[in-house]
Amino acid sequence: MVKGSYELASKLVADMIRDELEKKPNMILGLATGSTPLGVYKELIRLHKEEGVDFSNITTFNLDEYVGLGKDHPQSYYYYMRNILFNHINIREENIFIQDGKAEDFNRECERYDELIKEKGGIDLQILGIGENGHIAFNEPADKLSVGTCIVQLTDSTINVNSRFFDSIEEVPKTAITMGIGSIMQAKKIILMADGEKKADIMKKLLESKYISTDIPASLLLLHQDLTIVLTRSAYKL
Ligand code: F6R
Q: Given 115, 133, 160, 203, which residue has the most CB atoms within 10 angstroms?
């Protein structure tokens, strides 16, 4: 576990991505949206523009997308990734994968996404944020968690938290398509990032817990053999 300022945490994660990239220029990178990784993406853009880091051979898979929002919707995760990262580095369009929020057949879309990840050789490094309720990707606390990519009903807590990106809470989609816990756990390396006081309670629970539980989906990560947890000071209350 590493602790520091948000800037330091972001640089550290970006450096870990750079290290992987040096070892494997065609690495498969799993990406998250939301507020937490913004600093990492900013630093990756800087590394590209100022230090010539080359992203032309990487492939990315995003964790999730809202059901019903197309690529051009300003609140879709596809749109976010374009604006925040992809438009500013030299990744190739054909190497970007995000679930289709407008798919005609969502069962097929879930299968297609998992098949694609396998076909590309699996995720080398997965970046994760954590929800205040312990969700990872959109795997919400529940009795059962899905192994593969699936459709989930967002909890009221997540809808509430994510409404900050929408004009009103009514506009937040109630359903999302998300990578499952199994797909995440199959990543060779995982970095879980947490920033802000709002994450302090869940991080304390997670780090002090001696058990795994589907009530805290992130707790399953504790079984992963190559997990790095990067916390900013504000998210740390042990
Ligand atoms: C986003 C995602 C979510 C977020 C989590 C934290 O793709 O999968 O699990 O990582 O909700 O969001 P922020 O970073 O906005 O606090």
A: 203
**CB of 135 shorter than 6 A to ligand 1:** yes
Q: How far apart are the C-alpha atoms of 206 and 152, rounded to whole Å?
A: 22
**What is the structure's pLDDT at 3?**
65
User: What is the spatial distance between Cα 10 and Cα 31, in angstroms, rounded to a whole number?
Assistant: 14
Q: What's the CA-to-centroid distance between 127 and ligand 1, angstroms?
A: 10
Q: Which residues contact 100 (CB under 8 A, 6 or more apart)?
A: 65, 109, 177
In this structure, what DSSP letter does residue 152 have? E
Q: How far is ligand 1, taken at its centre, from the CA of residue 32, in Å?
A: 7
pLDDT of 1 above 70:
no
Task: Tell me the average pLDDT of the chain.
Answer: 95
Whether 35 is in the pocket of ligand 1, judged by its Cβ within 6 Å, is yes
Q: Is 135 a catalytic residue?
A: yes
Instruction: Count the Cβ atoms, other than its own, within 10 Å of residue 67.
Output: 22
Q: What percent of the chain has pLDDT over 90?
A: 95
Q: Could you tell me if 74 and 65 are in contact, meaning their C-beta atoms sit under 8 angstroms apart?
A: no
Distance set, CA 188 to CA 134, 184, 185, 233 (Å)? 21, 9, 8, 27
* Whether the predicted model's global pTM rises above the 0.90 cut: yes
Residue nearest to atom 9 of ligand 1 (CA): 137
Closest CA to 28 of 98, 109, 136, 117: 117
Q: Check if the beta carbon of residue 157 is closer than 8 Å to that of residue 122.
A: no
